[in-house]
Write a structure and sequence with these properties.
The protein is an alpha+beta fold. The chain is built from eleven helices and four strands; from the N terminus they run αβαβααβαβαααααα. The chain has two domains: 162 residues, no CATH class; 88 residues, Alpha-Beta Plaits.
Length: 270
């Protein structure tokens, strides 16, 4: 019964660590996709008196991935009510060129300022509007959210790791006499501690499978689906080919390292 409790405590601790890790992976994955969506919608407006090609913009700053000219049609339509139709073509010529510039990734506020300065240095560009205030607010909110999740994950990892060490230490005390007897007969360290390592490996595997089942069930019943749809993102809560090896590797490595620390700290009685 005591052995079962030790197993259960270790599995719960490993499950908590892996659950937190998977949540962090999902949050990071969600933020990456959200940043891509923001980058697709984010653009810098440039006003110029001449035609500017995409290659010209890219020479100004390599971060610029694409540009598109904004048609002055709406401006012409507003002017059409006040001027004669014969003068419209003349106004089309005199109207400046408007361009919408897209970047190759969601930029930091410093990168936005750099691109803006590079564009403003060109004499043929009259004005640049980067909407930096709104962009900076969104960027800082994303960065803050990342840090909060990371601190939360580190705190849980630290506490549960200490709990795992405690459970393994209790197991060692329960088998203290048996390990001393095996040492008297010349059994190597790995053989004396084989049960401890087997406990660590089996519990790591069980915890990984439980996390896999928990997220598959959560995805099947639509948990968090509505929250993701509100921000226009659809991602799998668990990607077996990518997430499973990571979780199992972390659980296995952590269990073996902690078990090794317990074994190395064990002192034989003479």
């Amino acid at each position: 019964m005591r052995s079962f409790k030790n197993h259960l405590s270790l599995i719960i601790a490993l499950f908590t660590i892996l659950l937190t890790l998977q949540i962090f992976i999902n949050v990071d994955r969600t933020i990456d996709i959200y940043e891509k969506n923001l980058n697709e919608n984010y653009s810098i407006i440039v006003i110029s008196d001449i035609n500017i090609s995409v290659n010209t913009f890219r020479k100004i700053d390599p971060m610029i991935s694409n540009s598109e000219e904004i048609s002055p049609k709406q401006v012409i339509q507003k002017m059409q009510k006040e001027i004669k139709s014969k003068s419209i073509n003349l106004h089309k010529i005199k109207l400046p060129k408007f361009y919408r510039i897209h970047l190759d990734h969601f930029p930091t506020p410093d990168e936005v300022d750099t691109v803006t300065l590079e564009l403003q240095r060109e004499g043929f560009i009259k004005r640049v509007e980067s909407f930096s205030h709104n962009h900076t607010t969104v960027y800082r909110l994303l960065l803050l959210f990342k840090w909060v999740v990371m601190i939360f994950a580190v705190a849980i990892f630290t506490v549960t790791t200490l709990l795992i060490l405690r459970e393994m230490r209790l197991w060692q005390l329960q088998h203290h006499e048996r390990m001393n007897i095996m040492a008297l007969f010349g059994a190597p360290v790995w053989l004396r501690s084989a049960v401890l390592f087997r406990l660590a490996i089996v519990d790591a595997l069980i915890a990984t499978v439980l996390v896999f089942g928990a997220f598959i069930a959560a995805e099947h019943y639509g948990i968090s689906k509505e929250a993701l749809q509100m921000i226009g993102i659809q991602i799998p809560l668990f990607n077996p080919t990518h997430d499973m090896p990571i979780l199992f590797g972390v659980a296995m490595s952590l269990s073996i390292v902690l078990a090794s620390l317990i074994v190395m700290g064990h002192k034989e009685e003479v």
